[in-house]
Specification:
By secondary structure, the chain is α/β, with parallel strands linked by helices. The protein has 22 helices and 13 strands. Strands 2-3-13-12-10-11 form a six-stranded mixed β-sheet, with helices on both faces. The chain has a five-stranded parallel β-sheet with strand order 6-5-7-8-9, with helices on both faces. It has a two-stranded antiparallel sheet with strand order 1-4. Helix 14 links the parallel strand 10 and strand 11. It is globular and about 80 Å long. Bound molecules: 6-O-phosphono-beta-D-fructofuranose.
């Protein structure tokens, strides 16, 4: 049983291999004299600005061996129940197999056939995609990445429970020419159900049969049918697909309708190519593994609390929340498979903004603050627009920021420059202290040849597998999210109190006095 293997993993801080890894990280240097560029499914991953040494390479392979990388990675691809707390598989790799399970293939074909049919009929000029978290970010990302030049259908996204979201999402649309896609794995999420109900009312108020203009994508088709979605309008996926891994399933249908079903196929094949790389490439050449180890060094040994995402492509701004969910919902844990506290720092905060806007927002902090953060620079070698000078400038900014973080500027260098500008000695010395930059700040440079569905699919899968390897070393379950669940339960309780229900009132006294105070204020 794979659960037994997981439960037998020793606490990380007690492993001699972890101690060996720690010591090797501390002794290693960022050696900019030699490039380290890995090739993975068409992506280039430059790790030259991370610490390395022969001792570190040896420590890494010992650490991964004791953490049973080979066995657990194979278990992931075999659909074994690695999600121990929910006793299910995390089998997203199956969704992008060229020859998947029959049920996966048949649902894939149903989606493609649906898109083909409604495209042929030029049906629905507007799509309103209702979903949240993993049922939202990936679809937004794909439509933004490949719909930047426009599409004959417009798409709007409604995720938040804030009534302004659904109001804005429906405003000005013709209900006769609008398809609502309700994407929710559980078919229970409060935000999605409330927004879907509003959309239904909107259809009915216009005399449109909501059932004809609504499709559901869910792992709970019974609930969708009970809710009123006609069975032929329900597309399904399975409980072995985690919410944040569901872009590869029918959840992507709205992207297919907006930017073409070729995008869905391209994403899947890029992700599959990365799956093959992750499975087969040796440790030293394996991009997800090396990215994971760089983060383990930066987070758990060197103590960096966050990693910045500097995405030098404005079409990829949704990559940031997509990866925030993938990484922080997966790695924001601090107990191991046995339930013991993990005594090293685990998943970092992931944050960012597209470059070059980021440079004018928070890059100062990356350059000169006392802490800083490792950065993932992500850029496309080739642009899809005609303004080559813009693209060269973009590339120049990306490389320049990385260079500045890596090399910094010494006080002596700054002082010499100041003197050359004609400053007197006291002024030159004083200003040099403000201009010095420590340098030696770690980063990864990830280069996509061009933004295609294939390259984006490969990029997303690379991060998924990076997360998997980190979880394996920390010994935590990256596939559950119990913390989020508690918030959902409490929100239900407080909602009931605000509505004055008897069940809600019974819960009132269990809340802290400040929450009680504000509930009373809001009720009044
Ligand atoms: O944010 C918590 C979460 O459970 C995510 O894991 C999931 O992607 C999201 O809620 C939406 O859930 P569902 O697809 O079931 O509506």
């Amino acid at each position: 049983m794979i659960h037994d293997v997981l439960k037998q993993l020793e606490p990380l801080d007690q492993l001699p291999q972890w101690e060996q890894f720690k010591q090797a990280v501390l002794a290693a240097k960022i050696d900019c004299k030699q490039t380290v560029i890995l090739e993975a499914a068409g992506l280039k991953v430059d790790l030259s600005a991370q610490r390395r040494s022969d001792a570190l390479s040896q420590a890494v392979s010992d650490l991964l061996e004791v953490r049973q990388l080979d066995k657990l990675r194979q278990a992931l691809f075999d659909g074994e129940h690695l999600n121990s707390t929910e006793d299910r598989a995390a089998w997203h790799t199956m969704l992008r197999q060229p020859q998947p399970l029959i049920e996966v293939q048949s649902e894939r074909l149903r989606v493609l056939e649906f898109v083909r049919r409604v495209d042929n009929d030029r049906r629905w000029r507007n799509i309103v995609h209702i979903g949240i978290g993993g049922s939202d970010w990936g679809v937004r990302l794909a439509t933004q990445a490949f719909g930047y030049a426009g599409s004959w259908r417009q798409i709007r996204f409604v995720s938040n429970i804030d009534g302004h979201a659904i109001e804005g999402g429906l405003a000005g649309l013709d209900p006769h020419d609008t398809l609502v896609v309700v994407a929710t794995k559980s078919f229970r999420t409060a935000e999605t159900m409330a927004n879907a109900a509003r959309a239904c009312e909107w259809f009915e108020a216009a005399g449109v049969n909501a059932g004809n203009n609504t499709i559901a994508v869910t792992a709970n088709p019974e609930a969708a049918a009970a809710w009123g979605i006609p069975r032929h309008n329900i597309y399904r996926f399975w409980d072995w697909v985690g919410g944040r891994f569901s872009l590869w399933s029918a959840v992507g249908v709205a992207a297919g309708l907006t930017v073409g079903s070729g995008v869905l196929a391209g994403l899947q094949s890029g992700a599959h190519a990365m799956d093959r790389h992750f499975l087969n490439a040796p440790i030293e050449e394996n991009a997800p593994i090396q990215l994971a180890l760089a983060e383990l060094a930066n987070r758990s040994v060197l103590g960096y609390g966050s990693r910045n995402l500097a995405v030098y492509d404005s079409r990829l701004s949704y990559l940031i929340p997509y990866l925030q969910q993938l990484e922080m919902e997966s790695l924001g844990k601090s107990v191991d498979h046995q339930g013991r506290d993990i005594k090293v720092a685990t998943g970092p905060v992931v944050w960012g903004m597209p470059g070059t806007d980021a440079q004018h927002t928070f890059f100062q902090w990356l350059h000169q603050s006392s802490e800083g953060a490792p950065v993932d620079f992500i850029v496309c070698q080739k642009a899809d627009h005609q303004w080559q000078q813009h693209h060269k400038q973009l590339l120049a900014h990306c490389l320049a920021q990385r260079q500045a973080l890596l090399h910094g500027k010494s006080t002596a260098q700054a002082e010499t420059e100041n003197r050359h500008k004609g400053m007197d000695s006291a002024q030159a010395q004083w200003l040099a202290h403000h201009r010095k930059q420590p340098g030696g700040r770690a980063s990864n440079l990830i280069v996509l040849p061009q933004l295609t569905p294939f390259s984006l699919g490969a990029l997303l899968a690379m991060y998924e597998h990076k997360v998997f390897v980190e979880a394996l070393v920390w010994g935590l379950n990256p596939f559950d999210q119990w913390g989020v669940e508690l918030g959902k339960v409490l929100a239900d309780d407080i909602f009931a109190i605000l509505n004055g229900s008897a069940a809600g009132d019974a819960k009132h006294t269990e809340l802290d006095c400040s929450t009680q105070y504000w509930i009373n204020q809001f009720k009044a």
